[in-house]
Amino acid sequence: MYTVSLDVETSISEEADLRRLFGTDRIYLVAGASVSMIGEITLGPEVTFAGACRIAGPVLIDKNSSLTDVRLGRDSVVRQSSILTGVEAGERNLFGPFCFIRDGCAVGDACILGAHVEAARSRFANGVKISHRAFVGDADIGPDTIIGAGVVFCNWDGARRQPATVGSNATIGSGSLLVAPILIGDGAIIAAGSTVTKNVPAGGKLIQKR
Predict the structure, then answer these.
(1) Which of 27, 39, 88, 205 is most solvent-facing, going by the fewest CB within 10 Å?
(2) 173-193 pLDDT tens trace
(3) 79, 116, 123, 132: which one is catalytic?
(4) Full-model pTM
């Protein structure tokens, strides 16, 4: 790990300058890219920056991760081998390992987008937790919602992408399929293994019998 502490925001647009700052040749800045940093920044080996990134520490970005056009708030961790592209994230977030968060995702504060999670064109309010192995596409997820392992937002209808909205404090059980367009209300509970094709009202429960 390589750590620097910056009292003022520092913008770097040359790979040589980035390597000099961290004292290693095992971090990368793609040609034409820039990264602005402030606070304590810790990078693992083989971390790559592309596009225009802004990192506000304390932040840890672990080995083999790639960030392109990312804004990352303080007290956040990007675990190893994660790819973040076109992401704006607040504070105290945990990404990965092996996650792929892309295409304009907005992440609030204190979220978990964990191991092998993929997300695209989605918004995550504060406190959303997706610990591992899920796909979220074209969705708006309300605060403090929990999405279980293996959940898939089925956002393609054969012709176009369709949106999904999940309210606050909802629970989506592991292995569920949410077929968009769909609305899941505040506090709703979807039992594990369900295929959801209709809206679920606030406080509702969907338990699909086997």
Answers:
(1) 205
(2) 999 999 999 999 999 999 999
(3) 132
(4) 0.95
